[in-house]
Amino acid sequence: MSFYETALKTGTKVFAVAPMIDWTDRHCRFLHRQLSRNALLYTEMVVADAIIHGPRERLLSFSPQEHPVALQLGGSDVGKLSEAIRIAADYGYDEIGLNVGCPSDRVQSGTFGACLMRDPGHVADLVTAMKKVSSVPVTVKCRIGVDDQEPADILPNFLARMVGAGADAIWIHARKAWLQGLSPKENREVPPLDYDLVHRMKRENPNVFLGINGGISDLDQAKTHLSVMDGVMLGRAAYQNTGLLAGVDAILDSDSPGGTRTPNLDWLALRDTMIAYAQDVIASGGRLHHVTRHMVGLFQGYAGARRFRQILSSEATRPGAGTDIIAAAFDAVDLAGETQRSAERIAG
C-alpha cells in the first residue's frame, strides 16, 4: 500500500512544501526537516535531460534526514522521464512528481510544465510510463487550466485521465496559468484563485488523493483547506516565513491546536544543528551563505528578527564567513521571551 493509499484509508492529512526553483535545494530541505518531522518536502524541479546528461550527484543527492522527500521531474518525453527515474532510484526518493504547472518561458520552450495541460492524453501516457519504472508513488502537480481553457470544463477530465493512468496523487495549484503575457511571478499572483473548484473536485473524487496549492499564506488557512482536501501545499509562505513550519506537526495532529507556533521547539538545538550542518557544507567546499540564505525568514514577527536577517544577509555572504555568524544571528532574537509569549497564546 502506497503512502497516499494509506493516507486515504486512514484519513491522515498531508502537509507539503512546494517545489520551488532556486529555493528548495538540499540545504533548504534540511532546515525545513528540523522544523517539522512530518512535512513532505520537494526538490526543485529537475529536468529529465539534466539528470541523464548532467551532474547527477549534485542534482540528486540529499541528506537521509530529509525523508520524506519527493523528486519533482520536468519533461515531456516518455523515454527520458523513464530513464531519469531509473537513475534517481539509487538515491532513495519517497516519491516522483511530474511538473504540469510551471509556466516559465524556459519550460514552455521544452514543451513541458503547464503547457502539458493542453494535452491530458500525453500526460496520461507519461504517468503510465513513469509508473512502470518507479518503485515509489508517482504524482502530478498541475494547474486548474491554462490560457483560454475553462477550468470547470477541463479539470474533471484531466483528473480522470491522471487517475486512469495510475497517478497516486494529484496536487492542484488553484490558479490558471497564462502562458502568454504574464511572467512566472505574475502567474503566481494575477490569475484568480478558485478554491471552490478544487474543493468540488475532491468532493466528486472521494477515493482519489487530491491536494491543494496556491495563495495559502498561513497554517490557519492550511487547516481550513485540510477540512476538505487530503493534503495542503505551501510554497512562498513556507519559505519566506520559515518559522511557521514549526507548527505543521501540530495541525496534522487532530488532538493539537493548529495555526499557532509551537513553544516546544528547542531553538538553541536548532541553532546547534544548523551550525554543525553548515560546518560540514563549508568543509565540503561550500559557503556559509549556501545554508544561511534559507534561514532568513526563520523568525518573522519575533523580537530581534530584523537584526537576525541583517546579520545573515550581510555578514554570511562575505568570503570566508564562518558559522559563528549563525550563533550571532540567533543571539539577536529574544527566544526566551517569544517562547513564553507563544505558550501564553496557546494556553489562552
The total domain count is 2
Strand content: 5-15%
Helix content: 40-55%
Order of helices and strands: HEHEHHEHEHHEHEHHEHEHHHHHHH
Task: Please characterize this protein's 3D structure.
The protein has 348 residues and is α/β, with parallel strands linked by helices. The protein folds into two domains: 3-252, Aldolase class I (TIM Barrel, Alpha-Beta Barrel); 267-340, Four Helix Bundle (Hemerythrin (Met), subunit A), CATH 1.20.120. The protein is 46% helix and 12% strand. The protein contains 18 helices and eight strands. It has helices at residues 3-10, 26-35, 48-53, 56-60, 78-88, 105-109, 120-133, 151-165, 184-187, 195-204, 219-226, 236-240, 248-252, 267-283, 288-292, 305-315, 324-331, 335-347, and strands spanning 14-17, 40-47, 69-74, 95-100, 138-143, 169-173, 210-213, 231-234. It has an eight-stranded parallel β-barrel with strand order 1-2-3-4-5-6-7-8, surrounded by six helices. Strand 3, helix 5 and strand 4 (95-100) form a beta-alpha-beta unit. Helix 7 packs parallel to helix 8 (151-165) and helix 14 packs antiparallel against helix 17 (324-331). The chain starts with a helix and ends with a helix.
How is the topology of this model organized?
Blueprint: H1 3-10, E1 14-17, H2 26-35, E2 40-47, H3 48-53, H4 56-60, E3 69-74, H5 78-88, E4 95-100, H6 105-109, H7 120-133, E5 138-143, H8 151-165, E6 169-173, H9 184-187, H10 195-204, E7 210-213, H11 219-226, E8 231-234, H12 236-240, H13 248-252, H14 267-283, H15 288-292, H16 305-315, H17 324-331, H18 335-347
Parallel strand pairs: 1-2, 1-8, 2-3, 3-4, 4-5, 5-6, 6-7, 7-8
